[in-house]
């Protein structure tokens, strides 16, 4: 079963997600949020915030998401690294970074 966290804060494409203490996802791991319409939003874990929270970046728009409440959104840790888009890697190598 996936480790499920709760969205604490949303600021643009940045989300803070709380998990049980000791069950934080690794940096660069993928997190997913299922929207009410059934679409999946993928997040990438970027930073650990203390013992129970992470800061993640959304790979698409966060419009319509809300902090976790009874009808809010859970955030599942998929225990896998998010794979970079090969096109992005080629563009970066051409630019020299």
Overview of the molecule:
With 97 residues, this protein is mostly beta strands. The chain has a single domain (3-95), classed as Beta Barrel (Thrombin, subunit H). It contains one helix and six strands, in the order E-E-E-E-E-E-H. It has one helix at 86-95; strands at 3-11, 14-18, 29-34, 40-49, 53-58, 74-81. The protein has a six-stranded antiparallel barrel with strand order 1-2-5-4-3-6. A hairpin with a 5-residue loop joins strand 3 (29-34) and strand 4 (40-49). The radius of gyration is 14 Å and the shape is globular. The termini are far apart. Residues 88-93 have low confidence and may be disordered.
List the helices and strands and how they pair.
Layout: E1 3-11, E2 14-18, E3 29-34, E4 40-49, E5 53-58, E6 74-81, H1 86-95
Antiparallel strand pairs: 1-2, 1-6, 2-5, 3-4, 3-6, 4-5
Main attributes of the structure:
97 residues; mainly beta; Thrombin, subunit H; 6-stranded antiparallel barrel; 1 helix; 45% strand; globular
- Could you describe the largest sheet, including whether it forms a barrel? 6 strands, antiparallel, barrel
What is the name of the CATH architecture?
Beta Barrel
Task: Give the overall silhouette.
Answer: globular
* Cα distance spanning the termini: 38 Å
CATH class group = Mainly Beta
- According to CATH, what is the topology? Thrombin, subunit H
Mean pLDDT metric: 77
The poorly predicted ranges are: 88-93
Please count the beta strands (DSSP E, at least 2 residues each).
6
- What would you call the structural class? mainly beta
Helix fraction, binned, reads 10-25%
Enumerate the strands of the largest sheet in spatial order, edge to edge or round the barrel: 1-2-5-4-3-6
Could you state the order of secondary-structure elements as H and E? EEEEEEH
User: What is the number of helices?
Assistant: 1
Number of domains: 1
Return Rg in Å: 14 Å
| Beta-strand content estimate | over 45%
